[in-house]
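User: quick one - fold this with phosphoenolpyruvate bound?
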Amino acid sequence: MKQDSSESALVKLTQIIQSAAKANTIEAQIQHIVDAISETLGVDVCSLYLKQRDESMRLVASHGLVRKHSVVIPAKQGLVGHVMQMQSVINIKEPDQHPEYYFVAQSKEERFHSYCGVPLVYRAQVYGVVVVQTRRPEILSSEYVALLSTLATHLATLLATYPKEVFPGRSKAKHYSGISGAQGVAIGRVYMRSLPRLADIQKLKATNIEVEYSRWQQVKSEALKQLQYERNTVKDSLGEGLASVLDAYQMLLQDVTFEQRITDEIAAGFQLPWAIKQSVGFFSDQFKAMDDPYLRERHEDIQQLGAKLYQIWQASADADMPEGSEPLILVGDQISVSDIVNLTTERLAGIVCFAGGSLSHIAVFANALGIPAVMGVGEVPVLNGDQVVVDGDAGQIVCSPGPSTLREYKRTLSDRRTLETRLQADSQLPAVTTDGVRITLLANSGLQADVLPGLKYGAEGIGLFRTEVPFMIRSSLPSEDDQEIIYRNLIRHYKDKPVYFRTLDIGADKPLSYLPVVKEDNPALGWRGIRYTLDNLPLLITQLRAILIAAAGNEQVHLMLPMIASTEQLDACLAVLNEVHQQLLDEGMTVCLPKIGIMVEVPSCIALLPFWRNKLDFISIGTNDLSQYLLALDRNSPLVGKWYDPLHPSVLHELRRIVTTSKALSLPVSVCGEMASDPIAVVLLLGMGIQQLSMSAAKIPLIKWIVREIAQAEAQALLMDVLQLDNATAIRQKGQQFLASKQLLFNESAPR
Ligand code: PEP
Ligand code: MG
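Assistant: Sure. Structure tokens for the protein plus phosphoenolpyruvate:
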């Protein structure tokens, strides 16, 4: 064994992982790693075993072991199985003396007299074991064990990103995981969108700058024409709300800085495609660097616009649409809205984007159209015409599914269709429990794109309008007039129905790009919501003015304050509201005060509710943040996400306390967090006495179905039962049992 200093070896090993990541195939990556480990540590053998679906361990790469045939160690056997099960290191001499030793015939393993096995663990999941062996009987030094453990962590992270088919022996169907963009399941043939890659454009000198300028003008005007056509098509089929999303592209194209960058590059002597690439790259990087997840994803819009411009320049042809009548799944690096609009076919069944996330515009469109979508799956090796399953519920796709997988998904699809037809038929019926309790179901909204789908799904109003969203999709602060138009539009669509406007919930992790950003160590505990707007009064005042003006003559408008945590904050807001009201009256307008309430989402406000009885008309429980703060768990962190469950008993007890308090105070209470669309949670909330829920519009039919099938008394009884339990897992199980007993368990879990 080499006596390398562990520090330099660590640097080397990190480099190995990084350089292996660049190898062309996964097999080459793995072999590269085991070779390099044995060289760096100076050991005779380095082997990598990967866990199979049946828990057996398959040797997938080795430096030093003879492999005449494939080596699989049965589940829970051998030192490898032991390391895996115990999730701890085994570092011993003479491994064949160990009681767990498993002899692999013809591997010539008996020549080696030392053994050190380290588990590969990533996010609590064991992926495999890396083993080093030497001919001499020796124990690996503690520095080297530490080094190997560090390496194992890197290796596990790398393995976790591999598609499942690289694990030999697992299902042949290729599963790729991404993010759910829109729920639902679709089976169809791949229709590849081969958008030209901006990245491939070369830096070419122009021969005639004037020609490039005039090409730019032509390309730009053609792009504007196409965008306008697409806008009209979307407007006709989906309404103005969704069509306005396309305005972002037009605005970008007409942005003076965008134009300036392009003409500067041309002036510097380059061809138009290069100028487009540079300009797009500049703006895209700016968006990518933003902290806010919504704004960060806007870089896609810029890249799509760039691709469109380049496509026009190049007039390139797309892949042929697969023939026949099978449903189509649009697959591509980034699907653009134009791809959907230009697909004049009823065959569109699903969408798969290599890039993007749940906040991409395309995901918003897919939701509005009710088309299952999976985003961010990475570059998937599929070809035009391949069969693919899009599982929008699980956020995964299955390429070339085997017969049993296909059968299962077809069954899921058919169950779903039956249910959806049933649910949609009931969508305009009131949500009344079997013992006669009327439950009001409202929609959460933010983008104008959500507005019309809400009505289609039977929303009885907007229970939460996240006013920060229209601010976030713009490049400058909307004026009082701009805001008034947005708010008036919403009120108009929901005529005679309640609309709850929440004042800006920005700051911290939701900064507005055009306002100064302050970096904080704990953004969720920092300058956000009302804490931010009270420190930036002009913002709050302008917004309140716009809401009051838009709400004139409408008694159904409610105003909701986010993140209220103290009496001082509440009083300060009420004072501003009264001032704004008086100001508008003084200006001669006939405005009235809307109903005023708070989001109950910071736990410190719960004990203060009785003190605020005469100041509030209602409260709405924001269970997303309330759970985050009660459980001290970042709601957006994938690392701790598995612990985040609003059915945690402490959250349920606290919710019950809020509802009991508000009932005693005769203070109307509703729930507007995601919990309001979780079937089990809904039963428990009904059991507590909640009679108003606000959720993503698409979930309304499902929740309405559940409400109409149960009695509030049953919900109360279930609540009493689960309040005796001390963990969320048991509570979920009880809830599942209840729903199953009422035949309300719609099988959303598709086959894996
Ligand atoms: C909540 O916190 O539950 C809520 C509805 O608000 P948001 O998700 O916008 O923070
Ligand atoms: Mg919140």
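One thing worth noting: Residues 165-172, 748-752 have pLDDT under 50 and may be disordered.
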